[in-house]
Design brief:
The complex is a heterodimer of chains A (290) and B (306).
Chain A: H1 4-35, H2 39-43, H3 60-65, H4 80-111, H5 119-128, H6 135-147, H7 154-179, H8 183-190, H9 195-206, H10 208-224, H11 227-232, H12 240-250, H13 255-276, H14 278-284
Helix pairs in contact in A: 1-13, 4-7, 4-10, 5-7, 7-10, 8-9, 10-13, 12-13
Chain B: H1 4-18, H2 20-24, H3 26-53, E1 55-58, E2 62-65, H4 69-75, H5 78-111, H6 116-128, H7 131-141, H8 148-155, H9 169-196, H10 199-207, H11 212-240, H12 244-249, H13 261-270, H14 275-305
Antiparallel strand pairs in B: 1-2
Helix pairs in contact in B: 3-14, 4-14, 5-9, 5-11, 6-9, 9-11, 10-11, 11-14, 13-14
Classes of the chains: A mainly alpha (290), B mainly alpha (306).
Amino acid sequence: MPTTRNRLVVGIIYFVLGIWALFTLLPIYWIAVTSIKSAKAVQGARPTFIPWVDFTPTFDAFRSIFGTGGGYGVSGLGNLAMLARNSFVAAFCSALLAVILGSMAAYALTRFRYRRWRNNDIAFWIVAQRMFPPVALIVPFYILFNRLNLLDHLSTLIIVYTAGNLPLVVWLLRDYFADLPVEIEEAALVDGASRFGAFFRIALPLALPGLVIAFLFAFVFAWNEFLFALTLTLDKAKTLPLQLAGNISVQGTRYWDIAAQGLIVMLPPLLIALFLGRYLIRGLTMGAVK
Amino acid sequence: MSGAPALAPAVSSAVPRQHAWADQNAKYVFLLPAVLYLLLLGIFPLIFSVYLVFSSWQSGSGITFVGLDNIRRLMVDVRFQDAVTRTLAYVALTAGLELAIGLLIALALQFATIGKSALRLALALPMLLPPIAISFAWKLLFDYNKGPVNYALDAIGLPRVTWLSGQTSALVSLVVVDIWQWTPFIALATLAALESLPTEIYEAALVDGAGLRAVLRDITLPLLTPYLVAIVLLRAVDAFKVFDTVYVLTGGGPGTATELLSFYAYAAGFRTFNMGFTATVAWATAILMTLVFLLYLRAFRRIEEA
């Protein structure tokens, strides 16, 4: 029934969605396009919008980051290799730890019954950890890790990020384990397998897609994290977002350089987002509907 | 090989015995590592920070007990009071606008047929990208002299806006970035809720000849309300904690015009190394947040009862 009225509704729907899609992509486009501008294209009388149309693209900003043709002291991403390694190690190790601890807890919450504290209460307590403002934790963490002589150590970031991601991982994997059929595990237990055998040989392999999704989410959130990196690291354990924030205030108007740096920091989450596809939505809206 | 059949039963009965202890306690062996980890890194630091509220901390001298000094200072701190008002306004504005726009997008997405999954993915991107990098992108867009936003205003004959350095406009800019980043959360969560509603009711209503607007108003929205209450609550909890965008876009300025509570807690303590005071501001924030949400939930319970 393609009536004019229906056509109008469809028109409005795509108008709303189109406007929002453009709005969403605007900053991402702008940082990408700025990264290939020359100083002249950025500082000209009017802003430039499209490469080859109103300015000539150049890869100078990327050259300065990767070391050739740079040469303005502290600029660029400075020690890119070290920063990237720090960010990667902190995100990778904390995500892995969170998935190990989280998958065990999520499995427990879906396979055993806890009488005294009740499963739902335990799950809620775990998720509620995310509600508290992180700024309340920066001072105790600073003092405790200072006392342990662990400030500016990567292990500190790994420890803190694991705690930050554990609730999300438990929440995602609890759904996942709950959807797995328990019959196979029960059969294995009857055949004499231990609980750990059932977990490692049956439940974990079946839950592998869920584990990957949870890992990638944890990885991205740790990769993006700023407040704890700002307060608990200084130099050796500095991460990419921290350096980027520093450059934004120090390098002032060398916009093209910082845009290129920002793009590099954005790249891993962007790729993971594309890879996650439809699972992305489920993870991001977790807990809101269920 | 003659010994093998005799050995087999012995092995199979020995294996369970080895694991007997761990198996009987599997319930706890699986759950406790995560719980202990969160106690150690979540609850213990919080208790420690309660103690810090009554202390001052210096790198050299360590923790000194100062009684109610921090709290007394907080009570007369105008900057803190301003940050409270500002944060409440920020949370109300972002949550309210994001709810309105998010609901619209969710409804549009529900009826969309072509390109639905690509649209969803594009919408979700802002939530996953590094806040520091996207804040910088917005800093470029909002740039007074060279930014495209002011260029567009010029083009249509409107005056330029000092997006990041005006008393009010800087806060508005932060709200815009929050809306950009988090409206998709409300839209996508609402869409998930919409898709979980039973379709029979719609079909029945449409068969009975109800118009689209009537269906939305009398069926969809009432069914959706409990979900929306929860979704907005989750969003508001996060809006209370905003830090990264403030740090990059305005640094709390101009002056203290965009000092939201998390940023003020950080700036008040970490920049002057008065850790006890940061802990005090942080706890005040947490208590305020809890109070606001209790009131919010109570208001909705009352509406639902009425």
